[in-house]
C-alpha cells in the first residue's frame, strides 16, 4: 500500500488524509493554513511544511495529492521534487494538466476529481466517509502512466468511492453540464426572482427553493470552480442559451412550450431511471489499449469498483 | 359561515372541499371526472352534477370555487347562474379575470390562488391540511366586490392559509418569476445535462438533482401552468436570457463570473433572510381605499392573517 502525502487540508484534502489513514495507509499532510494545520495535528495527524512533505514523498515514493484551490496549484507544482507520483482533486482537469505540463513536466501525473463535497469548508468539515459511494473521476488520457493510474485508482477505491475513467476534456465537458451550469442557472434564477420584489419572494415555494439552493454556496468557491472550467462552461452556457431562446421564441410565436417541457421531463426521467452498472468486466491495466478501453467504459456510464494487482474490475450497464 | 361549492375535485379542489368541511362549512362539489366523483362520495362528501351544484350555490348564496384546469374554466363559467359569488384556484389570474369578464360578466368574481401543491393529482391526493401555512393570493384589483373579497379571504384563512393580496397582474408577474421560470430553467438544465450522455449523468450530484427536480412534474400540468401565463412568463424569460447572456459575455471576454455569482448569492440570502411579517395592522374592508391599501401591503411582503367582520388583521415586516 503506497504512502499518501496530501497538500492542502481543507474539506476535500482533509477528508482524503483521514480516509487514507483509515484505510491503513501511512499518511502525512501539509497546508498553508495555520488553522487547518493546528486542527489536523490536534486530531493526531502528521502535518509538516510543504517542502518537507514533498521531499518525504520523493524519498518514500509516495503518491502526492494536491488538494489546494486551482489558483494555488502552481505554487505547489513549483515546489515539487523531480519525478514524484502526483494526482490532484481539483474540480477541473484540463487546466491542471496544462499547468503540470508547463511547470512540472517531470511529474508522473494522473489527475483526479472526487465528486463529493458539502457547502462547508476547512479541516473541521472533513470526514473520512465523505467519498463513500461517490464517483471519483481518474484521468485516462493517452500517455498516462499506468502505474500511477493504478495508484490513484487504488486510493480512490480505498476511500469507498468508485472510479469513473475519462479523459480530462471529457471530464471537463461533463461537469460543466451537470455541476457548473447548475450554479450559473441557480444564480440567474435567484436574481430574476429577487427582481420581483417582496411580493415574489413571499410567494416563492418549492420550485424556486430547489432551483436556487446552490446559489447559497460560497461565491468565491463557485467562481473558482466555474471560471476554472471556462471553455467547457461556455459550451454548456451556449447550449442553455440556445434552448432557453428556443423556448422564448416558441412561447412568443405559438404560445407553446411543449418541446422544452417534454424534452426536460424525458431528460429528468433518464437521470432517475439510468441503468445500474451491473455487468462485470475486467481491464488489464498493462495492456496497450487499457486507457482507451477505460475511457470508453466511463463514456458509457461504467465504473471501476475494485483493483487486483494490475487488473481493474469494472461494472457497466 | 358561507356555504362552499367546489367545481373540480382534483388535488386542489378536493383539498379545498375537505378543508372547508373540516372548518365547519356546508359544502358540496361537482366534477367531470367520474373517478373523482366516486372517490369523493365514498369519502362521505356531497357530489352532484355541475348544473345542480351551481343552481344550489345560487339558491344558497354560496361561494363557488372553480378548481378545474384553465382550459376547462370557460365551460364552467358558461353554466354559471346570474350573480353568484365566484372565486377560482387557477395558477394564473389575469387570463381568468379576462375570461370571466367576457363569458360571465354578471358573476361577483374575486380570483384566488393557493400557493400549495404536490406532484400528485386527483381526489385521492387531496388533503384537508394542504393549505396550512401556505400563501393564498386573493385578487385585490380595483372594482373587486369587498363582500366577495371577504368571502374568499375567510375561506382561505379557514383552510389554515394566510392571504396575500395582489392585483391579478402583480400576481402573474410574481409567479412567472418564482414558479413558472423555475420549471422552464429546470427543463433546460435537464436537457443540457442529458446531452452530455451517460458520463455526465454518472457524475451528476446534488446541484444537478436540485436544479432539475421539478422537471419530473407531469409535463401537461407544467405546460398548462406556464403557457397560461404567457405574457408575464415572457418577461421573466427575457430577464433570465439577459442575465445568462451577460454571464456568457463576461466569461468569454474577461473569464469572470463575479457579477452573476455574487448577485445570485445575495438574492438567495435575501430569500433566506426575508423578514418575518410581525408588525400588526388592520384594514377596514369597507373603506374606499381598502383594495389599494391591501395591494400595497401585499407588494411589501405583508399578509392578512385573520378576519373579524369587515376588519382584516394583517402582518407586515
Automatic annotation (TrEMBL), chains A, B:
<dbReference type="InterPro" id="IPR046826">
    <property type="entry name" value="PDH_N"/>
</dbReference>
<protein>
    <submittedName>
        <fullName>Prephenate dehydrogenase</fullName>
    </submittedName>
</protein>
<dbReference type="Pfam" id="PF02153">
    <property type="entry name" value="PDH_N"/>
</dbReference>
<dbReference type="InterPro" id="IPR008927">
    <property type="entry name" value="6-PGluconate_DH-like_C_sf"/>
</dbReference>
<comment type="similarity">
    <text>Belongs to the prephenate/arogenate dehydrogenase family.</text>
</comment>
<dbReference type="InterPro" id="IPR003099">
    <property type="entry name" value="Prephen_DH"/>
</dbReference>
<keyword id="KW-0560">Oxidoreductase</keyword>
<dbReference type="InterPro" id="IPR050812">
    <property type="entry name" value="Preph/Arog_dehydrog"/>
</dbReference>
<feature type="domain" description="Prephenate/arogenate dehydrogenase">
    <location>
        <begin position="2"/>
        <end position="282"/>
    </location>
</feature>
<dbReference type="InterPro" id="IPR046825">
    <property type="entry name" value="PDH_C"/>
</dbReference>
<dbReference type="InterPro" id="IPR036291">
    <property type="entry name" value="NAD(P)-bd_dom_sf"/>
</dbReference>
<dbReference type="Pfam" id="PF20463">
    <property type="entry name" value="PDH_C"/>
</dbReference>
Amino acid at each position: 500500500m503506497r504512502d499518501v502525502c496530501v497538500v492542502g487540508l481543507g474539506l476535500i484534502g482533509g477528508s482524503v488524509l483521514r480516509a487514507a489513514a483509515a484505510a491503513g495507509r501511512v499518511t502525512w499532510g501539509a497546508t498553508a493554513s495555520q488553522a487547518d494545520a493546528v486542527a489536523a495535528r490536534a486530531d493526531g495527524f502528521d502535518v509538516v511544511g510543504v517542502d518537507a512533505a514533498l521531499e518525504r514523498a520523493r524519498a518514500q515514493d509516495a503518491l502526492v495529492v494536491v488538494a489546494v484551490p486551482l489558483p494555488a496549484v502552481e505554487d505547489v507544482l513549483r515546489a515539487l521534487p523531480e519525478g514524484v507520483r502526483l494526482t490532484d482533486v481539483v474540480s477541473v482537469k484540463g487546466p491542471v494538466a496544462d499547468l503540470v505540463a508547463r511547470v512540472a513536466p517531470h511529474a508522473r501525473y494522473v489527475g483526479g476529481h472526487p465528486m463529493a463535497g458539502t457547502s462547508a469548508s476547512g479541516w473541521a468539515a472533513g470526514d473520512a466517509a465523505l467519498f463513500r459511494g461517490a464517483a471519483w473521476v481518474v484521468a485516462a488520457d493517452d500517455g498516462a502512466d499506468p502505474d500511477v493510474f493504478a495508484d490513484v485508482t487504488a486510493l480512490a477505491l480505498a476511500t469507498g468511492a468508485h472510479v469513473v475513467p475519462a479523459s480530462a476534456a471529457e471530464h471537463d465537458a461533463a461537469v460543466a453540464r451537470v455541476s457548473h451550469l447548475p450554479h450559473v442557472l441557480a444564480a440567474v434564477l435567484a436574481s430574476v426572482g429577487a427582481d420581483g420584489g417582496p411580493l415574489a419572494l413571499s410567494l416563492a415555494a418549492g420550485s424556486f427553493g430547489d432551483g436556487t439552493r446552490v446559489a447559497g454556496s460560497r461565491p468565491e468557491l463557485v467562481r473558482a470552480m466555474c471560471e476554472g472550467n471556462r471553455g467547457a462552461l461556455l459550451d454548456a452556457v451556449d447550449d442553455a442559451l440556445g434552448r432557453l431562446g428556443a423556448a422564448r421564441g416558441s412561447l412568443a410565436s405559438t404560445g407553446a412550450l411543449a418541446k422544452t417541457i417534454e424534452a426536460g421531463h424525458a431528460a429528468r426521467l433518464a437521470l432517475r431511471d439510468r441503468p445500474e452498472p451491473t455487468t462485470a468486466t475486467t481491464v488489464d491495466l498493462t495492456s496497450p489499449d487499457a486507457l482507451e478501453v477505460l475511457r470508453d467504459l466511463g463514456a458509457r456510464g461504467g465504473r471501476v469498483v475494485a483493483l487486483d494487482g494490475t487488473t481493474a474490475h469494472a461494472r457497466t450497464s
